Amino acid sequence: MPAAARPLLLSDRPMPDCVRDYPMMRYMGSKFRLLPWLHEVLGELEFASALDAFSGSGCVGFLLKAMNKRVTSADFLAFPIEIATATVANPGVRVSEEEAERLMEYDPKHRHFIEHTFTGIFYTPTELRFLDRVSWNIRKLTDPIKRSIATAALIRSCAKRQPRGVFTVAGDPARYKDGRRDLRLSLREHFREHLAKYNETAFDNGHKNRAVRSDVFDLDPTGIDLVYLDPPYVPRSDDNCYIKRYHFLEGLACYWHGVEIMESTRVKKIAKPYTPFSYRRTAHDAFDRMFQRFADSVTVLSYSSNGYPDLDEIVRLLSRYHSSVSVVGRPHRYHFGTHRSASRNEVTEYLIVGKR
Questions:
Q1: Contact (CB, 8 A) for 32 and 169
Q2: CB 45 within 8 A of CB 298
Q3: What is the pLDDT of residues 7-56, one digit of tens each?
Q4: Is the pLDDT score of 3 beyond 50?
Q5: Selection from 221, 223, 122 nearest residue 172 by Cα
Q6: For 3-355, CATH number?
Q7: What pLDDT is attached to residue 332?
Q8: What is its EC number (predicted)?
Q9: What SS3 state is found at 124?
Q10: Which of these, 6, 188, 199, 178, lies nearest to 95 by C-alpha position?
Q11: How far apart are the two ends of the chain, measured CA to CA in Å?
Q12: Which residue, among 148, 177, 180, has the nearest Cα to 161 in the 3D structure?
């Protein structure tokens, strides 16, 4: 067929602007900078419904929504589901200016848990009181989507205000004098700004999209045309513990209800939930069970050259359940933190596609 007569593929179209403007935050393993590549690869595949089984920052689920797919975003942590509810599952709901103002109003009934628990650890006393106040007022919103928008804005505010975006070391952000705007803004200023950003992401793609908190092995694969998998694979060095890095955001998402605070830790970490993907002794079996669970769906796995098991073994496992397995790769550099000694991991990022 002559080039001029070739049908226009989705991958030939530019990535939607709304995806480029997605309110990203620093997140371990984030695929935000890889979204144009993902858009290109996914655009060559035929599917109407998709599951983003490890939602994380929510950017891939949002890409799938912008591609007019029916999307389910899932994660076993609470704060990614608040973000996915605000963006992927949101059919066009926004928080009004009046509601935004009420979220920041003082209520003498509000609790002071954050102020009492985290004084002298991450933020100023004024900012801690602000977090308590807004967390209390969020509960007054009757629309669950609006509650998630406000919670997502509060989560992103805390992540942006934290010097390295992680919560492993105690310290007042004010002691970092490197001129960054994120550290100059107060949490209140961040919150207003990020409420507006999440409002801007709201749109209806014509499908009933969902965000569910669930372990990957509890997800129902029925009716899923394509599953996108980005599990926390075991790295060759360091660890893949999201709770260690983002425990404050996880606690904030549920106001620390139902979580165990490790009082002996300086930063008041919460207990790490178990995942078999975190350990070499269980990771191999976890990948095999996961691939088997979604054997009837097109499988797209994000993987890295520094992961365990290695690429050949991952391909072998996926080939048990799919007759066609292809691999595309590209160089990628993960950035953790902004300080001079932060790890810069140069790897080859893979997209491994399995089809029946």
A1: no
A2: yes
A3: 434 445 788 999 999 999 888 888 999 999 999 999 999 999 999 999 99
A4: no
A5: 122
A6: 3.40.50.150
A7: 62
A8: 2.1.1.72
A9: coil
A10: 199
A11: 27
A12: 180
